[in-house]
Amino acid sequence: MLPTSSSSSSSSSSSKQILFISTLIILWYSSNIGVLLLNKFLLSNYGFKYPIFLTMCHMSASAILSYISIVFLKVVPFQKIKSRSQFLRIATLSVVFCGSVVGGNISLRYLPVSFNQAVGATTPFFTALFAYLMTFKREAWITYGALVPVVAGVVIASGGEPSFHLYGFIMCISATAARAFKSVLQGVLLSSEGEKLNSMNLLLYMSPMAVVVLLPAALVMEPDVLDATLSLGSKHRFMWLLLFVNSTMAYSANLTNFLVTKNTSIAGYSVTVMGVVAYGEAKRRYK
């Protein structure tokens, strides 16, 4: 009787875990889709062509909402940074994230969106590579084998892309590698026994650091952003509401991204990333 009861309990626990992870992935998909559609709406309807500043708004919302959730709503306990090395790793995570945004932004000046998304599909390859280099974690050979067609496809697409630009391609690959490095680094920060941070606390610390990096980048690369934003806001009364909703949804996307990374393997994360990329490509082709 006892083995049967134990087996039943284990099966129930496994089912709950699968349901939890499935819910996380659905929420991450939904948040990313929402951010994608709202970004597109802002860019096409209002001419709000300032992706670095927009990302800064997203990270500002993430910082504020994380603070409210932890300090006032007490959703999770507040965790202090325990060491200088932990602070440096969080700062590195923020800088890498900002670098991926800026690199992707620069690449879009030289490459079409479709090719940019095709290169972005190699994220799982870089994720598996960095996971091995940083944690010596090996995946099953079938996982690596599944990544070969993705990389081969990008190589073939590069040779056949009529508007291929070497500098744009380098920036796009760099941005993709930075996103993969971020996912592995945040996985380490979320799982290290000595200096473990829960997802919300990690976002609380990472977001303000990202804002500090993104603000000067926006002022340098998008010098007219403040005047243009105020001007657009006075002309279109719903722009501020859309910007607020967009930033709030970006907080959800960032938080669920951390949770997915914490609760799935590299393989599971890779499948999820490829799904998001595939959705973006489908939206582009059939819009």
UniProtKB/TrEMBL annotation:
Annotated ranges, domain Sugar phosphate transporter: 21-272
One Pfam family here: TPT
InterPro entries: EmrE-like, Sugar_P_trans_dom, TPT_transporter
TM segment ranges: 18-38, 50-75, 87-108, 114-134, 141-158, 164-181, 202-220, 240-260
Organism this protein belongs to: Cynara cardunculus var. scolymus
Record keywords, A-Z: Membrane, Transmembrane, Transmembrane helix
Membrane-topology annotation of the record: Multi-pass membrane protein
Designated name of the protein: Sugar phosphate transporter domain-containing protein
Compartmental location: Membrane
GO CC annotations, alphabetized: membrane
PANTHER family per the UniProt record, alphabetical: SOLUTE CARRIER FAMILY 35 (PTHR11132)
